[in-house]
Amino acid sequence: MMRKSMGMMTLTSLVLDRRNLTSANHGDWMMRNWIQATMKVAMTSMALQWTRTEWIIPNR
Predict the structure, then answer these.
(1) Distance, CA of 5 to CA of 37 (rounded, Å)
(2) Superkingdom, according to UniProt (predicted)?
Protein backbone atom coordinates (compact mmCIF):
# COMPACT_ATOMS: atom_id res chain seq x y z
CA MET A 1 0.00 0.00 0.00
CA MET A 2 2.69 2.46 1.00
CA ARG A 3 4.85 1.51 -1.97
CA LYS A 4 1.90 2.00 -4.34
CA SER A 5 1.10 5.45 -2.91
CA MET A 6 4.77 6.44 -3.15
CA GLY A 7 4.84 5.34 -6.78
CA MET A 8 1.72 7.39 -7.49
CA MET A 9 3.28 10.40 -5.77
CA THR A 10 6.45 10.18 -7.87
CA LEU A 11 4.37 9.70 -11.01
CA THR A 12 2.21 12.76 -10.30
CA SER A 13 5.28 14.85 -9.41
CA LEU A 14 6.93 13.85 -12.70
CA VAL A 15 3.79 14.75 -14.64
CA LEU A 16 3.52 18.08 -12.82
CA ASP A 17 7.18 18.84 -13.50
CA ARG A 18 6.72 18.11 -17.18
CA ARG A 19 3.58 20.24 -17.29
CA ASN A 20 5.40 23.13 -15.62
CA LEU A 21 8.17 22.86 -18.22
CA THR A 22 5.75 22.90 -21.15
CA SER A 23 2.95 24.94 -19.58
CA ALA A 24 4.07 28.21 -21.20
CA ASN A 25 4.33 26.77 -24.70
CA HIS A 26 1.26 24.58 -24.26
CA GLY A 27 -0.86 27.44 -22.90
CA ASP A 28 0.21 29.69 -25.78
CA TRP A 29 -0.62 26.96 -28.30
CA MET A 30 -3.96 26.25 -26.63
CA MET A 31 -4.91 29.94 -26.63
CA ARG A 32 -3.94 30.29 -30.29
CA ASN A 33 -5.94 27.22 -31.25
CA TRP A 34 -8.93 28.37 -29.19
CA ILE A 35 -8.86 31.84 -30.75
CA GLN A 36 -8.57 30.36 -34.25
CA ALA A 37 -11.45 27.97 -33.58
CA THR A 38 -13.72 30.71 -32.19
CA MET A 39 -12.86 32.98 -35.11
CA LYS A 40 -13.70 30.20 -37.57
CA VAL A 41 -17.01 29.51 -35.86
CA ALA A 42 -17.90 33.20 -35.71
CA MET A 43 -16.98 33.73 -39.37
CA THR A 44 -18.96 30.69 -40.54
CA SER A 45 -22.01 31.61 -38.46
CA MET A 46 -21.91 35.20 -39.71
CA ALA A 47 -21.53 34.01 -43.31
CA LEU A 48 -24.43 31.60 -42.89
CA GLN A 49 -26.65 34.30 -41.40
CA TRP A 50 -25.71 36.76 -44.15
CA THR A 51 -26.35 34.24 -46.93
CA ARG A 52 -29.60 33.18 -45.29
CA THR A 53 -30.86 36.77 -45.14
CA GLU A 54 -29.66 37.32 -48.72
CA TRP A 55 -31.64 34.29 -49.82
CA ILE A 56 -34.75 35.06 -47.78
CA ILE A 57 -35.17 38.73 -48.74
CA PRO A 58 -35.45 38.26 -52.56
CA ASN A 59 -37.98 35.43 -52.10
CA ARG A 60 -40.35 37.72 -50.22
Answers:
(1) 40
(2) Eukaryota
